[in-house]
Amino acid sequence: MIPMKIHFNDLTAEQFLEKYWQKQPLLIKGAFKDFQDPIEADELAGLAMEEFIQSRIVNRTKNNWQVKHGPFVDYSEFGEANWTLLVQAVNNWFAEVDALIEPFKFVPSWRIDDVMVSFSTPGGGVGPHLDQYDVFIIQGEGKRRWRVGNPDPSLETLLPHEDLKQVSEFEAVIDEVTEPGDLLYIPPNHPHDGIAIDNSLNYSIGFQAPNAQELYSAFADHQLDNQLFENRFDDKNRKATNSPEELSMEDIQLLTNEMKESLNDESLMKHFMGKYLTTVHHPLNLLVPMEPLSFKQIYGFLEDGNSINAVLGLKAVVINTNNYKALFANGEEFLLEDDTKALAHLLARKQPLTLEQLKSSLDCLKNKQLLTNVINKGLWSFE
Q1: Are 6 and 103 in contact (CB under 8 A)?
Q2: Residues 6 or more apart whose Cβ sits within 8 Å of residue 284
Q3: Which end of the chain has less Cβ packing within 10 Å, N or C?
Q4: Under a CB-based contact definition with an 8 Å cutoff, are residues 53 and 87 in contact?
Q5: Which of 89, 92, 88, 50 is nearest to 71 (CA)?
């Protein structure tokens, strides 16, 4: 597999982040030279037939919009035009699709969510809409007309179908036809609408951007699951009151401090964030060995020329601070020491690892244990 590189033309990645990231949309013509589709339309249709895959078809007849959710058995009812098949997390199942994430790693890996792939017939699209997250869209096979606007609070929310949220007509600042290898960047809350000109494939690299509501909700669940901060409100310095009906500012502050105590627990927050931001929300093909492997067996596989690879779609990060070091993968924590940091970084980059690349790390018992542990959990495996 040949690594891809984004040809930013007159921009560098740093300039792109400074001028466009979360600020304004950008179309880069010919961003990927000689682009070859990593998946065929028939393969995508086959994937959408699986129970464990999240997929949907949006089709339009004049102004009548319909949405059907997979798995799909047959596509003949949709005809030859005006429909789109959208399949989430295709990178969890096709290595060539997962490789599309690599060129975007000038942004930290934890921000990247998944690769959604869509196949559209002529006239197919999902209508004008907003996303709450950044997205890069690579044009594959075929052509598509894209219109993108700037944020506009006057836009109306439309619901042509209960499963389809659109917005009213907007003024476009980009109105272009994309061809294979073109790259479109759309920041959050920018209205956009893509309509296929002919049969076309699109690859959407989406970014996770949890809001405060989601973080608080997940953090509360984390505390409940781990039975944390169960001590009751401390009221030992209570003074008599002449206004029992009043909720005083002092009491409000005491209750607020009770809540802040958990947020100010640095160790807890590191553990929670590592777990939360690496938990994959779509199925992974975890390759857990039938019987746990010993390090001797693992070393033997490496000596035979096999490389170690992260499971497709795996999310992994390293947290490295003075008093807390850990590798997180798919929500699991692997505590690190100074001796194991280098190996953890190699693993979290999710590049194939050969014996030559690992040899200097494998003199250390703790590294042997870490490598054996992640392989026996099915998070990394041999190819």
Answers
A1: yes
A2: 92, 311, 312, 313, 314, 330
A3: C
A4: yes
A5: 50
